[in-house]
Here is the input.
Amino acid sequence: MIKKDIAVKRKKGLYYLVKEDNGIQRFKPWLGDAFSFLYDLIMEKSIFPKKFGGEMARHVEILRGELGNIRNRRVLELATGSGEAVRYLDNSNRYAGLDISPGLLKIAAGKFAAAGFEDPRFFVASADDLPFADDVFDVCLCLLSFNFFHDASAVVEEIKRVLRRGGEFFCSVPVPERRERSSPIHGTLYSEEEFESMFQAGGFDFQSLPGRNGALLYFKAVVK
Ligand SMILES: C[S@@+](CC[C@H](N)C(=O)[O-])C[C@H]1O[C@@H](n2cnc3c(N)ncnc32)[C@H](O)[C@@H]1O
Here is the structure.
């Protein structure tokens, strides 16, 4: 599953990338690892109502509808965060999660263990440079995070590389044309049209999903 020539080291339940000097690669997390324990509360009580003008409960409902039937697949999640995907994903799936924040991944590891996933793996790495070999996943998820990535086209290329042909990418992301709140949203916001051309140019079929929830767009892209 790991790319040739990449070394990883397991420490306290997470996999870290090993640098040339044998040290561990670290990143600068969005919220600061010290605040990881507040993450779920901030998302539900502040980010959803105040920034997205939507609801966490509706988000869970939409994603359960789209992802709930996925069973026994090799699933990769980009930007796992605190592991909220246990609310939408069946535990028969072989799950690998990736995030730049070890603090959030540790919380995620606890949730996946409690939800009964068998040997879920958590990697401290960035979505634009995945440590995985080609064609090793059936499904890739990226929920509420694409706006944080600095190099969107590198992320699209990486998703295409690690998914098998016919593999599916599911995304939920705020888009400017659905925003009704003036409270700023962190990162770069791409429109639905921009996502469509980005993924089509990257070798995917793009499909917007029907769920509506404030500023959020839900879409799927399938590797051609
Ligand atoms: C708003 S949270 C969403 C987390 C989770 N997907 C969810 O639905 O609750 C955004 C996440 O993106 C992660 N992140 C930011 N930049 C990243 C990158 N380059 N690669 C991987 N994860 C990243 C942050 O650490 C954070 O966990």
In short: The CA atoms of residues 39 and 75 lie 23 Å apart. Helices lie at 39-52, 56-67, 102-114, 152-162, 192-201.
